[in-house]
Design brief:
single chain, 494 residues, alpha/beta, 6-stranded parallel β-sheet
Length: 494
């Protein structure tokens, strides 16, 4: 393929984490894809919410969402470095979609020149295929202690020399100070490319902000390109900052089924986006290990970055006993690491917890899991529902979609989805390796029909918003609130 080497670029940085960079890039990818062939890009992402590409590579979920918004397939080049925190100041480093090593922060930064090379290679490959690369920074752009080793903000800005838009979050307070301060702290060779500010998550009349916007522009000589409203979007959350803001139950329930689902908030929880489709149709609570579990209709043990450590924490807190008391009273689901915990035993050769040992599980499923090698299974799959029982009987034989991201292998006497998963004799304790399970409407509906019938309440089927509709809704908000003429000018001026 001819290498065009002339792809235009736009870089979206933020004043802090969770200010809305990912959502804004998603909206821009949708809007700009009408004119250009667009690729998203984030040099380095730190997130436990990940996605598996068609060729089995693991990337941050945000870049997968952005690619789909742009109408292209996600690839590893769109997020060449993914850091998945494991605890104890250690992260698993995923490079170009493959496990690279477990490293502490200090050891990781020792290899930063190698990561710069990975960044450049990924950008070159994207440049050869796309007209425009919409790039995203990470955390706050003005982390002055990291300037000499930062590849995702300063590094990306210097390598690409792209025009920069800086996003600030007014909901957290201090937005004018954070925008002004970030600009002043940026290195001169980076700040010269700062071409616009965006204020996000505003509640109220934007006219109230006008005096402040003008003063900010006068002080910095940088225009404010728009003010985005606070809005509830049907798009998966990016990272751990989002789960910290999850409510322990809905405070405002409008036309929602009277079903209580408790998701165990494991210390090393991963891919909690698995359960966001359920938040639209049930009261989903995220329960800490030292919280009261109550009497939910359904309990879900989610995925985890370290199954053994979270199992031990589950047991030491007594949460395991509280879950086991609900057998025959509630549906119990285990996803990925949660599935492994539901079994009788976990054999660890030292991959998970550093020492060879056997660990007793919750014993709710007749399964055994073994961690034998440092090898991760990452694959998208389609499976047929093969399980019987009160939840799955009327959808047996139907197809579902999901993706696997796990170490370890599990033996089971009876599967649920093709050759995956396990189910107990009652049909109400279910384990599976499939992330994205509840994105399947047939699974959501089967679960809700069973739970509502058992509870004796009416089932109100959800009004489904397709993924494409959600991207269009976001694009309308972004397009109506930002100076898109100016943004096109920044792009075309390269």
């Amino acid at each position: 393929m001819e290498n065009k080497k002339n792809a235009k670029k736009l870089l979206v940085l933020g004043t802090a984490s969770d200010v809305g960079k990912s959502i804004m890039v998603t909206g821009l990818c949708r809007i700009l894809s009408r004119k250009y062939k667009v690729a998203p890009f984030k040099a380095q992402n730190m997130s436990l919410n990940s996605w598996i590409t068609k060729d089995g590579k693991e990337i941050g979920i945000a870049q997968a969402i952005q690619a789909k918004a742009a109408g292209v397939d996600p690839t590893a080049d769109m997020n060449p470095v993914l850091l998945k925190p494991k605890g104890d100041r250690t992260s698993q480093v995923i490079v170009l979609g493959e496990p690279y090593a477990d490293k502490s922060a200090g050891n990781y930064y020792d290899s930063i020149e190698e990561m710069h090379g990975v960044l450049r290679g990924a950008l070159e490959r994207l440049e050869s295929e796309y007209d425009l690369i919409v790039m995203e920074g990470a955390g706050g752009a003005a982390e002055i202690n990291l300037y000499d080793r930062d590849i995702v903000n300063i590094g990306t800005a210097r390598i690409t020399q792209a025009p920069i838009i800086l996003v600030g979050d007014i909901e957290s307070g201090g937005v004018f100070a954070s925008l002004y301060g970030t600009k002043e702290l940026l290195p001169e060779d980076v700040s010269k490319n700062l071409k616009g500010f965006v204020i996000n998550k505003f509640r109220g009349d934007p006219a109230i902000l006008e005096p402040g916007l003008k003063q900010l522009e006068d002080l910095t000589d940088v225009p404010v390109l728009g003010v985005l409203p606070y809005s509830k979007l049907k798009i998966p959350s990016e990272d751990s900052m989002a789960i910290r803001k999850k409510k322990k139950g809905r405070e405002e329930i409008e036309e929602i089924n009277d079903i209580d689902i408790a998701v165990i908030r494991l210390p090393r929880i991963s891919n909690f986006t698995d359960f966001e489709p359920l938040e639209r149709i049930a009261n989903v609570r995220y329960v800490d290990l030292d919280d009261e579990l109550g009497n939910p209709d359904c309990v879900i043990i989610p995925g985890t970055k370290n199954t053994v450590s979270d199992l031990l924490d589950l047991q030491s807190s007594g949460m395991d006993a509280r879950i086991k008391k609900l057998k025959d009273k509630a549906v119990i689901f285990g996803i990925c690491g949660g599935y492994q915990m539901l079994g009788k035993v976990i054999h660890d050769s030292g991959i998970e917890n550093g020492v060879e040992a056997d660990y007793e599980g919750l014993g709710l499923l007749e399964t055994e899991t073994a961690f034998g090698e440092y090898k991760k299974k990452t694959v998208q799959v389609k499976k047929k529902i093969v399980a019987e029982g009160p939840i799955f009987n009327h959808i047996k034989g139907e197809e579902i979609w999901g993706y696997e991201i796990h170490m370890g292998a599990t033996k089971t006497p009876r599967t649920v989805f093709g050759d995956d998963g396990s189910i107990d004799e009652s049909g109400t304790v279910v384990g599976t390796y499939l992330h994205g399970l509840f994105e399947n409407a047939n699974i959501r509906h089967a679960l809700m029909i069973y739970l509502t019938e058992k509870k004796g309440v009416d089932y109100q089927p959800e009004t489904v918003t397709t993924e494409d509709e959600a991207y269009e809704e976001l694009a309308r908000v972004v397009e109506s609130c930002l100076d898109m003429d100016k943004i096109y000018e920044l792009i075309e001026g390269q």
